[in-house]
Amino acid sequence: MKRKTVLVTGAAGTVGTYVVALADAAGYRVIATDLRAHTVREPIRGEVRAADLTDPAALPALVEGCDAVIHTAALMDVAAEPAALTAVNTDAVTRLHAAAKEAGCERFVHLSGARLYASQGSAPLGEDAPLAPRGPYGMSKHAAEVYLRGQSDGPAWTILRAAPIYGRRGRHFAASLLAVGPILRLTMPILPRFEGGPLGTMVHAEDVARALLFVLEQQETHFRVFNVSDGDTLSLGERLSITFDAYGLRTAAVPSGFRAYIRVLGSERLDRVLDRAGLMGWKAVVARHGLKSALRPRFDREVLELVHEDLVVDASALRGLGFTPRFPRFAAGWAEVLRVYQAERWVPRYGG
To answer: Coil, helix or strand for 18?
Structure first.
């Protein structure tokens, strides 16, 4: 029986690194691609093909010989120029799918995001919930979905909408969560133990990778959209307290009203001020603890949206097909990620 070949884009990214390793372990021949070959783990069976997905001329050679594509590559910076976001998050997807069709690929699995959903308070968001993409980033991700959902021939597509992702290489919302405690600790020996705040679910990057491979192998997922989430609904205050505990930082209770405080922080006029202040604070943390400058925690529009609104992602449809996350509890997965960050000297250690 011929070993199937799968192309993994964004192979050096937070999710892509897990996809390459798990696809390897599952027996696939893996073609791993990212902008620079040296950043990508060499598959056991397969090869690394460095490529710029925004270059149409590079795509035919990239998909040559592939039976399936798992597309995780994306431009995640919401502050990037709209043209750059469109080029990576929309145009590259449409061209890659077209190239895969021309090459005779059977499957195309696309990683999207649950932040495309319109806010519905604390109600769980299923796949049929209305969408309301925000800003150029959201519009670029939504446009890719619109294109794929309009394709009825060629590679059978599946779209996976992930809750906010954390993992061993996460440098976005997860990095911001990890930065809050150390920044506060610069001037506060005992940190406030927050309660309340917006409710949400998250998902470990390994579980996103496992879900991508799971839907790839399931006939029932063809031409369908699925959410992926750990299902562990927590408030922002709880996530911060879990983070402080994982660091071993001392905390004390603070008065209620954290949600109202967060709503004030969510003001559009404050996002740039908070982002600059957060960056200055993090630079001080890096200098004090002799850390590597690997993280750039952000407190910009993207992060403030996540701390301002509820985002409870319902992944029951995927679970109904038999998928179960390895990290169904945020506290356990988060502690594992923190240990890795500390071993890499990306974040500080406290206590003994």
So the answer is: helix
Provide the CA 155 distance to its chain's centre, in angstroms: 24
Catalytic site positions = 137
Strand partners, 113: 162
Comparing CA positions, the residue from 317, 78, 127 lying closest to residue 214 is 317
Q: Does the pTM exceed 0.85? A: yes
Angle between helices 236-247 and 258-265 (to 10 degrees): 100
How many whole angstroms separate alpha carbon 352 and alpha carbon 341? 17
Q: Rounded to 5 degrees, what angle do the CA atoms 46, 49, 51 make?
A: 155
Which amino acid belongs to residue 349? Answer: R
Per-residue pLDDT reduced to its tens digit, 30-83: 999 999 988 898 898 899 999 999 999 999 999 999 999 999 999 988 888 999
Closest CA to 109 of 93, 86, 127: 93
CB 124 within 8 Å of CB 314:
yes
Q: State both tokens at 135.
A: 């800003």
Q: How far apart are the first and last CA of the chain?
A: 54
Strand partners, 7: 31, 69
Give the H/E segment covering residue 82. Answer: helix 82-86
Element (H, E) at 286: helix 271-289
CA-nearest of 20, 13, 70 to 46 is 20
For 124, other C-beta atoms within 10 Å of its C-beta total: 18
* Number of helices and strands in the chain (H, E): 13, 13
Query: How does pLDDT run across 214-271, given as a tens digit for each residue?
Result: 999 999 999 999 999 999 999 999 999 999 999 999 999 876 655 455 554 555 556 6
Nearest to 173 by CA among 327, 330, 298, 338: 298
| 347 close to 180: Cβ distance less than 8 angstroms | no
What is the spatial distance between Cα 266 and Cα 86, in angstroms, rounded to a whole number? 26
In the chain, the domains with their CATH numbers are: 5-165+202-228 (3.40.50.720), 170-200+233-311+328-343 (no CATH)
Place of tokens 């699995």: 109
Is the CB of residue 42 less than 8 Å from the CB of residue 30?
A: no
d(CA 71, CA 18): 13
